[in-house]
Amino acid sequence: MELQGGHAFTDWWERFHETRRGYFALQPDGQRSGFPNPRTVKLCQSNPAGWQQWLADVAKKLEKDPTLQVFSASPNDGWASGHCTCENCRAWDHPDGEPRQFHWKGGNEIHPALSDRHVTFANRLAGLLKERYPDRDYYVMMLAYGHSRPAPIKAVPAENVIMVSVANFFGRSDDDDRGSTRGTTHREQFTAWGKVAPHLMWRPNTGSPAGWQQGLPDVSMTQLAEDFRFVADNHCVGLFVDSVWEHWATRWSRPARAVAIRYASVGPAIDS
Length: 272
Ligand SMILES: [Zn+2]
Description:
Largest sheet: 6 strands, mixed
Strand content: 5-15%
Number of strands: 8
Mean pLDDT: 87
Order of helices and strands: HHEHEEHEEHEHEHE
Bound molecules: zinc ion
């Protein structure tokens, strides 16, 4: 199963900002302005027209490559900025979600984590995907990243959704999530997702001990062995390590390489 680790809607502003402005997130100033910028623009995820557009894109991708099985619905990067403030999108948030700091043009505000919202969005798409291709083994891929790093409070990912946790403990076991207001560690977040997601991948960024991507040797084999054992024990079925370009000899992996492993009959397996 071929997987991607990135963001799904980076070309949507360019494609649709003139004709389909309703696809995009409503900002606090009442505009769908594309904040913060075209490549990191956020969607109005509760807009059914956007779901149909995503499905039409899936059909086009399948025309080009009928072997595809996994279709990303992961929000664009710039994870604190520009998320939709419309009533319907907000209704998908859970009030008990971890309070996190969001950014819009002109200021910051604290709101609940987006985990429940993003799972609900992925589930809507997963339902449409199954309806359109009932006999196919197709999946929606959704990152648990930025403000959706904590596990959801109530929403449960559907059977044909693959959650991809960007829990950054690759070689750094005890790191806190810097966006957490509760001091939660990345490992705790991964464990929590493992309890609710039918399919969970681990998609850490590599980094130096300070957390920056430098490409310098940072070889921590014992730590990595422990990390792999940990994710396997917490229901991981696939890996995608976002690495540092051109430094793969010291960082063990190249970017854009992913592999997912189905559960063996005896339980979760892991490979690389
Ligand atoms: Zn919205």
